[in-house]
Amino acid sequence: MERRSRADGDLGFHRSRRPSSSSSKPPNRSDASQSKNKRIETKEDRFTADDSSMNSSSSTSSPIVGTCSEMCPVRERAQRERLRDLSVFERLNGNPGRTSPSLAPSDVRPLQVLQGTLTYLLNLFNNSSEYPFEVVHDFIFDRTRAIRQDLSMQNVVDDQAVCMHEEMVKFHIISHYRLSRCIDNPHASSLRHLNMEQLLKSLTSLYDLYEANQKSSSVTKNKAEFYSFYVLLQLGSKSQLMGESLSLWFRRLAASSIIKSKEMCFARRVLRMGSFTRFIATTASEASHLQLCIMEPYIAEFALAKLWATERGLEESQNSEAVAPLLK
């Protein structure tokens, strides 16, 4: 990964440019998807093993304090150069830092660097229309996960960590919506699945941070809306729970003012609706932008189910009319 002068305020990423040679063009979509799936599996295996190691030693050691002042640690950049795993948004691309408790502080980015990295990534996310969305998402997907990992390793649980997790949840929610519209990409389904996994993990981490910051007034303004996302993710026939039934989850929140908030009341009402007309009307008039991004992919499914039920009802009605004279 090529770096500019630190005096320019660059934190380690090379400014993205449209590739000018064939060697730096985005790879074939099929090859890219296969490569990503293989890369994700490798990372997940390592994360699982390392996280277990971290958990077993957390009671005997204090959190690591990162000293890396750039967006990407030096050793990781060297590894990426050897692997030649290229991205259109930086000169070199590769695997996020490992989570072993023996990891050197120079491989871990402190809070202010992580905040700068996230700001860079979100700006790229909002201003990269020249590239296919799947390419942009792939680049940011890995790096936001590495940011969460570095925050967790250093046990950063303050208000700033809450805000950063909220921004990363927003990224995955908007990606959930936009990936559902990538109908021309044969690998869009796997991309949506991977994004949903990280959305649920990000929400889980965010809820833990909310619990750790209950006495902080600055983190309460968005809590109701972000708790409502969990409810809305139960819409549709392919909903993914986070290891707890919705009824138990509601019961756990019963003593909190969150359960009576406008956002949660909306989410619970939508979840119980059987009328497609009311569902659409309520969504259009009351849903926030992020709530709508979660719900939009399910609206088509709801409409198809309603159409199927209507056609089935007409068919049964016609059959009843035909059979009725025979029963007299």
From TrEMBL:
It holds the Pfam family SAC3_GANP. GO terms for biological process: mRNA export from nucleus. GO terms for cellular component: cytoplasm; transcription export complex 2. Residues 1-70 are annotated as: Disordered. InterPro entries: SAC3/GANP/THP3, SAC3/GANP/THP3_conserved. Residues 71-314 form the SAC3/GANP/THP3 conserved domain. Residues 19-30, 52-62 have a biased composition (Low complexity). Signal peptide: none annotated. Residues 1-13, 38-49 have a biased composition (Basic and acidic residues). This is SAC3/GANP/THP3 conserved domain-containing protein. It comes from Stephania japonica.
